[in-house]
Design brief:
Length: about 230
């Protein structure tokens, strides 16, 4: 009988110490609402000649108790961030300036995070026409290592957007020097991929210049990758 009660006590202790091994639910990425994708934001409250206060909005996401808003000045690549438990937040940003923005969802019980899509917009300024958004370099990703094709080629791909919807074309610069100064091709607004020749064990640099019908241009910035 003594051994029976001892066994029962051990089982109780084991069950009480076992706890719940299920991981906490991971947060879900938020859906962005405003400023709209590839739009001109005209709702900012003027602060001074160079800045206005813009309110960003998104939808609540599951398993989330806080959000971090990030707005990146695409001319300087400088980010601004703010954390909040709400589904909106305001930041002072430059007038007449292109921005990208996204929201990161967090749950205090989980180590995982989830990031929304990234949207582009121009914060309204005094100009009546806008330069295109800097092209978003899609592939190869910066810092990646890439396998070339049998023909010793890889494809560069990107995406472009413009508030005025008047992109006329793209010029692609590509070389093993940084920054790349060799123009390897021009494409129309509907073609966002270009195949280039590469060599093994070489680091390459590339960027895309976008031009619109008004002659305005934007620079994507330089990405680098290595060929196996």
């Amino acid at each position: 009988m003594k051994h029976f009660f001892l066994s029962i006590l051990i089982l109780i202790l084991l069950s009480s110490c076992g706890g719940n091994d299920d991981p906490p639910p991971a947060p879900v990425g938020a859906n962005l609402v405003f400023p709209l994708e590839s739009s001109e934001c005209t709702t900012g409250v003027s602060i001074n000649d160079t800045q206005s206060q813009v309110t960003f909005e998104w939808l609540a996401s599951a398993n989330t108790d806080s959000y971090t808003l990030s707005a990146v000045n695409l001319e300087t690549n400088m980010p601004q961030t703010i954390s909040t438990a709400a589904t909106s937040a305001s930041l002072p940003i430059g007038k007449g300036t292109p921005y990208s923005w996204s929201v990161t969802s967090r749950n205090s019980s989980s180590d995982q995070i989830a990031t929304s899509e990234t949207w582009l917009f121009y914060n309204s300024g005094s100009q009546t026409t806008y330069a295109p958004f800097p092209a978003q370099l899609v592939s190869p990703l910066s810092g990646s290592t890439v396998q070339k094709s049998i023909a010793n080629e890889i494809a560069l791909s990107w995406s472009g957007a413009d508030v005025d919807s008047d992109i006329s074309g793209f010029e692609i610069f590509f070389s093993d020097q940084n920054p790349p100064t060799s123009s390897v091709g021009n494409t129309t607004s509907t073609i966002t991929e270009l195949v280039v020749s590469v060599e093994s064990n070489t680091i390459y640099y590339w960027k895309v210049i976008t031009t619109d019908l008004e002659g305005n241009t934007s620079d994507s910035g330089v990405f680098e990758f290595k060929i196996l």
